[in-house]
Amino acid sequence: MVEPMNVGDEVEVIVREQAGWLAVLLAYVLPFVLLVAAVAVFGQLGWSEVQAGTAALLSVAVYFVILRMFRDKLQRQFTFWVRKIN
User: CA-CA distance, 86 to 70, in Å (whole number)?
Assistant: First the structure.
């Protein structure tokens, strides 16, 4: 039987391990790799450090906008369960 939960109850939030790793990849690893790669590419193109850094940050911003556009598809990958801690 499912025990009802109330405000203030201690709970445990559970997610599949695979979904957790996907979240880490999408939120931390890929943006970091994109940032470093963009700085390297723009630097090799002869851009100044300020220009390359700004362009790299804008690249990461565009990445997150694209990620946001696919949020409905991504939401299907993440299922959370909440369990009351006794």
Answer: 38
57: nearest Cα among 47, 70, 46: 47
Number of H helices, E strands in the chain: 4, 2
Computed from CA positions of residues 78, 82, 83, 86, in that sequence, does the dihedral angle turn out positive or negative? Answer: positive
**Both structure tokens of 39:** 């700085």
Long-range contacts formed by 60-68: CB under 8 A, 24+ apart: 60/31, 60/34, 60/35, 63/30, 63/31, 63/34, 64/31, 67/26
Mean pLDDT on 3-21: 90
pTM: 0.76
Task: Name the band, by pLDDT with cuts 50, 70 and 90, for residue 4.
Answer: confident
Contacts of 10 (CB under 8 A, 6+ apart): 84, 85
Q: How far apart are CA 73 and CA 65, in angstroms?
A: 14
